[in-house]
# Entry
Amino acid sequence: MISQGEWYLLYVSSGREEQAKRNLEQRIKYMDASDKIFQVVIPTTKEIEIKAGKRHITNKKAFPGYIMVNMQLDERSYDIVRNTYGVVGFVSADVKPIPLAKEEAEPILRRMEEAPSEVKVTFKEGDSVRVTTGPFVDFIGKVDQLNLDKGRVKVLLSLFGRETPAELDLLGVERI
# Structure
């Protein structure tokens, strides 16, 4: 993301980041301030979540309770941002807002564009799961090990009265 101004971090009410972003964007449009305030972003990361045996890509807030704004700071742009409903204030140790350093802002913006690398599963070691695919369909077992890097799970299944380990795909099991 190429920026015209500098990036500032804003405090907002936690859980209301989308509302604060929408309010700020409407206020920028209404007050014709798009020449000073260029972009409003909620920092997120993409995650792969597995639910009911299906992969879903979800956006997770990287910093709940914060949004980023790209702007040229002057008295008018400061007042517009500061007096927006839902915005608590600028993150700064000083009276005057301090922009994020390029070394801080660029990795956050880059991470938002990257493909998801983390896999989030709804079960953990020791949980009971049901096998949904393969030769052990409808078998119930306990999760012994998770290997998120490879997308595999080792499940202890009861076969012929013995616990037998079976290595399965994460998509092939669901929590019960």
Remarks:
- The mean pLDDT is 88.
